[in-house]
Write a structure and sequence with these properties.
3-stranded antiparallel sheet, DNA-binding, 3 strands, 33% helix, single chain, Arc Repressor Mutant, subunit A, mainly alpha
Length: 261
DNA sequence: AATTTTTGCAACCGCCGTTGA
DNA sequence: TTCAACGGCGGTTGCAAAAAT
């Protein structure tokens, strides 16, 4: 199936059905939102919603801007490099779509998520219910390692453990305390003693000038390696704990994760 | 050609963290 | 310290287009 461009950019109303169930954005609404944000800037979406004259809520405005109207949005087919990166990142991170999208300039988390669920996930035969589209609560919850690092039930963060927090894996190694990935542990006293690696900085920093090898894997930093050792206990136990510096000079445009295999 | 099924994606939903009063 | 508003995220769904029958 080839679906190109903005096939449904305008509101679609079925014949004889006055109210579309899905409230698609109209070009006029896009124009209003775009003009307002370009004039006043991003942020404060509730205000944007009110003052722009949009009938949309703040969240809807933010989503529309972020996923569709924002400058430098790259649309169209994913390149092979982008596909490879998504696969590799998903293998490492699970359904951390925003984090994965952060490594793909011009791509949004929603686009990456959709692309995974429609194009890539079906090719991963090891995943439960791979290939099916609906009833997907477990489809994308598994990395290839069987590790779930999704956010909704296992929120990264602040040490507040929600009473509703559950894990979606039966892996006994994944517990309610270790499956949370800290966004900023420096402000979290409850987690300071855990020495949890900061995954956010790990995958957003581009300043590293060395590559780190562990087995045949390539890491950007010791802290990245630390992440795998911390969150994937089997990672350490399965290999000799030895890694070496990469003597090769750092290549700025080369994402080391592309080398991860 | 008509109908049914599948696919792809935009948008919504709800949860949770952060922030400020 | 509490609470409401807001923002961000991942999961889910509605529906048109494309493919299959």
């Amino acid at each position: 199936m080839v679906m190109t461009g903005n096939k449904r950019s305008s509101s679609v109303v079925k014949a004889g059905n006055a109210q579309p169930k899905k409230n698609l954005w109209k070009p006029e609404e896009d124009l209003i939102l775009r003009q307002y944000v370009e004039t006043h800037g991003e942020g404060n979406w509730a205000t944007v919603s009110k003052r722009s004259g949009s009938l949309r809520g703040g969240k809807s405005c933010r989503l529309r801007w972020k996923n569709y109207l924002r400058p430098n949005i790259k649309r169209g087919d994913m390149s092979q490099e982008e596909q490879d990166l998504i696969i590799r990142m998903h293998k490492l991170l699970g359904n951390r779509w925003s984090l994965i999208a952060g490594r793909l300039p011009g791509r949004t988390d929603n686009e990456v998520k959709n692309y995974w669920n429609t194009h890539l996930n079906k090719n991963i035969s090891c995943c439960p219910a791979a290939g099916s589209k609906r009833k997907s609560t477990t489809i994308a919850d598994y990395s290839n390692d069987g590790i779930n690092i999704t956010k909704k039930k296992n929120k990264i963060g602040t040490g507040k453990t929600s009473s509703t927090a559950t894990t979606t894996t039966d892996d006994p190694m994944i517990t309610s305390s270790t499956d949370r990935i800290p966004k900023d542990t420096s402000s979290d006293h409850q987690h300071q003693h855990h020495k949890e690696p900061n995954i956010e900085s790990m995958f957003t920093s581009t300043s590293t000038e060395e590559s780190w090898f562990y087995d045949d894997m390539d890491f950007e930093s010791p802290s990245e390696l630390q992440y795998y050792q911390y969150y994937l206990p089997s990672f350490s136990s399965n290999f000799n704990a030895a890694f070496a510096f990469d003597d090769e000079p750092f290549i700025g445009y080369m994402d080391s994760l592309l080398l991860f295999d």
